[in-house]
Amino acid sequence: MNLRPDHKEDSVEVNLTPLIDVVFLLLIFFMVSTTFDRHAKLKVSLPEASTKATQQQNDSLILSIDAKGNYFLNDRQIVNQQLDTLKQAILKIMSEKNINIKNASLVLRADANTPHQSVVRAMDAASQIGLTKLSIATVESK
What is the DSSP letter of 23? Predict the structure, then answer.
């Protein structure tokens, strides 16, 4: 028993493979030739130093950084400039003064010619310890 019809319908088949190839080539071309502007995503409003002085809290630590990148925590020099040493020194001073991490604040006093890496390292150490109150000391511009 033959269930297939004897005559075949004329159907036109369109081969989509070349079309897909061209679409992928165009996609790759546009991905490679496009430039991504990272600055457009981040809009930053930089802070200005005010003439009004704020009172310093009792639970604040002062981390000074000189022009060479040396650290001074409450006027005591930290010999090693590594991240772990900086974290240990901050924790040691906090335990000596019985300062709670949640109430503590860190004041960064960096020289104008301090390497940027030193300031970032200090901020990173404070973040890893769990200090959430961080301020940067400035001077009044004349």
Answer: H
